[in-house]
Amino acid sequence: MTPMLRKGWFDRAVMAALVLLAALWMLPLLWVLALSFKPNELLMVRTDVFLAPPYTLANYADILQTSAVFRWLGNSALVAALQTLGVLVLSSLAGYGFARCEFPGRRWLFPLVLFGLAVPSQSVFIPLHRLFSDWGLQNTYAGLALPGLAAPFGVFLMTQYFKAVPIDLEEAAMLDNASRFKTFFKVVLPLTLPAQATLGIFTFLACWNDYLWPLVIATKPEMYTLTRGLASTQTNFAQSEGLGFLMAQAVFAGAPVLMIYLFFQKHLVTAVAGTGRS
């Protein structure tokens, strides 16, 4: 067997292994999707026949019959959009500053920002809640969105990506009398769109799926996000009496994020490859 033929068989074996692992990874998702179309009465008896009929749309109808569900959906979309926009703006400015600018304390400030990755968000819930309550931001969109603007991962990602951008482009723009801000907005920032898309996806996903912070800062039903609102509709015995309803809630809450991810997925590989060139 020639080396070329052996390489071909090896590539096929690796691809087959990856397909198998992907199928195993998708199986729980397919199980959740299938159970969301099953009658709750049947699921009280058994849950291992998720591919066989009967099927029903009653679980999704129960979600849509909740009068505030579209208000919660709008709250989640608005808060996630505001937080994503804020993170992109602040992380881009901070990342460019760390990558290109010299200022006092730069060498110790960047590791300090990265140290924020090691701090669990739950550990600062009490001081954050007291601070936002004193500011009168409880049950407000600002109170829901502002804590997520502190994004050490975003600063790290954008810093690495800005370092990968050739500095010759900036020098050429400055030779044409372009200011630092004009160079940043007109020359450098457009080259970081893959990283921006990646950071935007991660930020939007984290905010959309967040449950703990809306649980403590939003106490009025009209200010619930989708995760908080759907959880409030569950009974104490939802796992045994409404499994199909729970699965439908998971699908309903995850579908918008899945569509956004599929739309921007091509930027993920580009962004990761870009950070590796620094």
From TrEMBL:
One of its GO terms (cellular component) is plasma membrane. Residues 73-264 form the ABC transmembrane type-1 domain. One of its GO terms (biological process) is transmembrane transport. It comes from the Bacteria. Keywords: Cell membrane, Membrane, Transmembrane, Transmembrane helix, Transport. It is found in: Cell membrane. The chain crosses the membrane at residues 77-96, 108-128, 140-162, 183-206, 243-264. It is a multi-pass membrane protein. PROSITE patterns: ABC_TM1. InterPro entries: MetI-like (IPR000515), MetI-like_sf (IPR035906). Belongs to the binding-protein-dependent transport system permease family. This is Carbohydrate ABC transporter permease. It comes from Roseateles chitinivorans.
